[in-house]
Each structure stands twice: as C-alpha cells, then as structure tokens.
C-alpha cells in the first residue's frame, strides 16, 4: 500500500508520528514551503508540486489545509490517486452568505494580523483552536506543541499564503465531481472545520463515507489515534 499523508497549515510532517506508528511504510510529505521544501503560493500550485512527488495509485490522506490540497490533487491528477481520505476537511473554511458551515472570516484575519509580530504566539493560539472540542484537549494540545514548536519556521511568506488559501478557497463546486473513493474522518467537536461541513461533503459526493469520532476536535489522529488508524487501514484496503 502506497500511503501518503499531508499535514495542515502552520504544522509539519512530524504531526503524523502517531499514524506512522501504525503505518511504518507510509510517507508524511511536507506541504510546499514547510520542512525545507520549496514554496508554492496557491492551492493549485501546491497540488501540482505534491502530485509530482506521488506514485500512481497512492492512498492519499489530507488533514485540514492538507485535505484541500489532497482533494485538488485527486481532482486534477486522478491517475495518481487510488483512494482519498480527508481528515477534518472542509470545502470552505470561512462562512459565506450561502455557507454557514465554516468559521468567521475574522478568525483568520486575526491570525494574519498577528503572524508577523508574534509568530510563536500566533502558532500557539492556532494550536489551541485545533485542540478545542476534544475531550482530551490538554493532552492533544501538549502533543501539538511538543511536536511542532521545536520545528523550523516555514519559508518566508508561506504561512501568509496559506492563510489566504484558508480564507479564499471554495471547493464546493469542484468536489462533487470527484471520481475517487472518498473517506471522511471528522471530530464531533471540531471548532475549525465544523462537523456540518463534513456532513455536507458526505451528501454532495456520491459514495463518500463519513466517520465521526466522538469527543475529538480538529486533530482526531492525535486524540484518538487507534480509531483513526483503523478507519484509514480499512479505507485503504477496502
């Protein structure tokens, strides 16, 4: 099985360590501009960059922003993907007049405004938001901080470009055209990508399977690693 995992905004491939314990042959790739890789500013450019690194028939797992990148790869390079697994993913992170299943635009505006002035503090606040909604919030937050705050800061402009994607990307029109097996894994208490967004995806995409992790927030693979690993394994071999 060729299993590849993509992390989210402001994080690092090391975030996937709990899953790599279950899937030692998997690869956790950095999003462009992270972990010393070359930046790519738009969602489409990020997808193209990563698609070039994938073998055919890859089982692709994407979390949060990495989920949007993974979805874009599956739409634009379907020959690369055998199965698509999206964790805490949403077609649109920000609320719009016709989309109430996101968060207020001000959430990302605040991150953008504070990023240049206080990088570490901004990342800490973002990590706290990811842990909210989890019944194991303290442990999840400790894991996030322990794994991420020792990592090198992404390349210049990468975090800002990522925030623009989080604020602007809207895949609602594209994703129903997805022609790949899709599995959705979502925490019941996710505050950054509300569960309603995953329910929308599961109803809009034929054959999509939604697994709700009760008591999990935006990082269910940290709070409920075995449960998430079982779902990934079943989806990959199914």
Tell me what you see in this structure:
This protein has 238 residues and is α/β, with parallel strands linked by helices. The chain has one domain (3-237): Rossmann fold (3-Layer(aba) Sandwich). Helices cover 42% and strands 13% of the residues. The protein is built from 10 helices and 6 strands; from the N terminus they run E-H-E-H-E-H-E-H-H-H-H-E-H-E-H-H. The protein has helices at 17-22, 43-51, 65-76, 105-115, 119-131, 137-148, 158-168, 195-204, 220-223, 225-237; strands at residues 3-6, 27-29, 58-63, 81-87, 181-187, 209-213. A 6-stranded parallel β-sheet has the order 2-1-3-4-5-6, with helices on both faces. The model has no long low-confidence stretch (mean pLDDT 92).
CATH architecture grouping:
3-Layer(aba) Sandwich
The rounded distance between the terminal residues' Cα atoms is: 12 Å
The Cα radius of gyration reads 16 Å
Specify the biggest β-sheet.
6 strands, parallel
Strand content: 5-15%
Output the CATH topology. Answer: Rossmann fold
Low-confidence stretches: none
Number of helices: 10
Q: How do you describe this structure in short?
A:
The protein is α/β, with parallel strands linked by helices.
List its salient traits:
single chain, 238 residues, alpha/beta, Rossmann fold, 6-stranded parallel β-sheet, 10 helices, 42% helix, globular
Topology:
Layout: E1 3-6, H1 17-22, E2 27-29, H2 43-51, E3 58-63, H3 65-76, E4 81-87, H4 105-115, H5 119-131, H6 137-148, H7 158-168, E5 181-187, H8 195-204, E6 209-213, H9 220-223, H10 225-237
Parallel strand pairs: 1-2, 1-3, 3-4, 4-5, 5-6
